[in-house]
Specification:
- By secondary structure, the protein is mainly beta.
- The protein has no helices and 21 strands.
- It has one domain: 6 Propeller (Neuraminidase).
- The strands form six sheets. It has a four-stranded antiparallel β-sheet with strand order 3-4-5-6, with no helix packed on it. A four-stranded antiparallel β-sheet has the order 7-8-9-10, with no helix packed on it.
- It starts with a strand and ends in an 8-residue tail after the last strand.
């Protein structure tokens, strides 16, 4: 873990509590608490802002293969994609208990069920967005866990989801960013599932992708993991010219 402000890094290894074996995804709360999903340990670990282990959520009795995670506004809820179990668990980070589980009844195309969920994101109102790798869609759930909206389908037109990967929601302007590993681009939807625009194309140049996967927002920067180009790309949307 690299801390630019303190100019240091930490390496997690070994067999002590909080050691990582197959870390997949991270989420950081406003107070600096760090959450890491570990697929091999079948758990999500929490560390304080000084990277000291706090506690573990889940374990083999709860998770099969925890992958993508996301924090709700305020950091009191953590969504965990359990991809192999075709489920998403929402955890109370204060109590360490599961608030509710979505899906989990084998892979399915039924509404409210999943077929390999791969990414999760919360918007500013606490609505949860889940992208599914093999259902080619995004499902939206309200803060109580009730299904609110489904959009997307397989295809080759703008707005279709061919190989949906990472998700990120921008609470400030109501935009959902969706990475598609087959189209090699990032699509932007409003929170009603309507396509706004997209950017990117296959290639190795700036703004081009080869199997983009993860995506994250930090202030006014959009960060995209460009997997097979072995790099991270950063994007910033510029305002209209003045004058």
């Amino acid at each position: 873990i690299i801390n630019r402000e303190q100019r240091r890094f930490e390496l997690f290894r070994g067999s002590s509590p909080g050691s990582l074996f197959e870390p997949v995804c991270v989420a950081v709360a406003e107070d600096g608490t760090l959450y890491v999903s570990d697929a091999r340990s079948q758990a999500v670990y929490a560390y304080d802002s000084d990277l000291r282990f706090i506690e573990a959520y889940g374990g083999a009795a709860v998770f099969s293969r925890p992958t993508a995670i996301a924090l709700a506004p305020g950091g009191d809820r953590l969504a965990v994609c359990d991809t192999d179990r075709h489920a998403v668990d929402v955890i109370d980070t204060n109590q360490g208990s599961t608030l509710f589980t979505l899906g989990g009844h084998e892979h399915s195309s039924r509404d409210g069920e999943f077929n390999f969920p791969v990414a999760v994101a919360f918007d500013g109102e606490g609505y949860l967005y889940v992208s599914e790798y093999l259902n080619f869609r995004i499902q939206v759930f309200d803060p109580a866990g009730d299904l609110d909206l489904i959009f997307g389908s397989a295809g080759d037109r703008p707005g279709d989801l061919n190989r949906p990967r990472g998700l990120a929601a921008d609470a400030s302007n109501g935009v959902l960013y969706q990475v598609d590993g087959a189209f090699q681009l990032v699509q932007m939807f409003n929170l009603d599932g309507e396509l706004l625009m997209w950017f990117g194309e296959p290639g190795q140049g700036p703004g081009q992708f080869s199997l983009p996967s993860g995506i994250a927002l930090r202030d006014d920067l959009l960060v995209v993991a460009d997997t097979l180009n072995h790099r991270i790309q950063l994007f910033r949307f510029l305002g209209s010219p003045q004058g």
